[in-house]
């Protein structure tokens, strides 16, 4: 199996300077970095220091889901390792990951980050409830694979259409993809031996106010559920949604926004 690494980058020079040496040392067949119209010196840094990197450049900021999709479109590997710019992989990441793709029904392997584990959950009163599963030394099936530290079988990614741009600027696009993969009969595995170090520093926090950011999260959470909800759960979902909006009036705004996005898509 051939391998690609895809990194979505925005104003990420300092992160790439720290993490790219470890990424390049993985020995993937190619490394693809999509620069999402950075305003720092990311492009100049990559051109000068890492000419072997396949660099895709956006002329305007497209945000995370579209940027990742463009990276996958440029990637040629059978297995694509999707890493955030602030993720540092362990040297044996590819070696530990690839054997799990011997099962053709495995779509993705999500990596072991400090403080996170596999995504456990299910439908409760018409809402998809989830949490970090119990951390142990066993492989678990996960509801989704992290959009910032996971490996994906590209053929299935292409079949499913990748991340849905409706989730732009980001959040829950990976949950949606995981739910779609499960409906299609594919598996997502959390493998504790596949380790990365992730020190999150999201550009969202600099671009949006905390309230606006929460609206995005709530809107996209609803969109992910509405896209993937079993038909029989709609009555109880609407009842629960109405009660939540009464208890938390601020939830009305992302609900209306999600409805508008759904109708417009």
Q: Which keywords apply here?
A:
2 domains, two-stranded antiparallel sheet, alpha/beta, Spore Coat Polysaccharide Biosynthesis Protein SpsA, Chain A, single chain, 265 residues
Note the topology.
Layout: E1 3-9, H1 13-25, E2 30-35, H2 42-49, E3 54-57, H3 64-74, E4 79-84, E5 87-89, H4 93-97, E6 106-113, E7 119-124, E8 127-132, E9 140-141, E10 149-153, H5 154-160, H6 173-183, E11 187-198, H7 204-207, H8 210-228, H9 234-247, H10 252-264
GO molecular function: glycosyltransferase activity
Keywords: Glycosyltransferase, Transferase
Protein name: Glycosyl transferase, family 2
What does this 3D model show about the protein?
By secondary structure, the chain is α/β, with parallel strands linked by helices. Strands 1, 2, 3, 4, 5, 6, 9, 10 and 11 form a 9-stranded mixed β-sheet that branches. A two-stranded antiparallel ribbon has the order 7-8. The two termini are 36 Å apart. The relative contact order is 0.14. The protein has helices spanning 13-25, 42-49, 64-74, 93-97, 154-160, 173-183, 204-207, 210-228, 234-247, 252-264; strands spanning 3-9, 30-35, 54-57, 79-84, 87-89, 106-113, 119-124, 127-132, 140-141, 149-153, 187-198. The chain has 2 domains: 3-205, Spore Coat Polysaccharide Biosynthesis Protein SpsA, Chain A, CATH 3.90.550.10; 206-264, no CATH class.
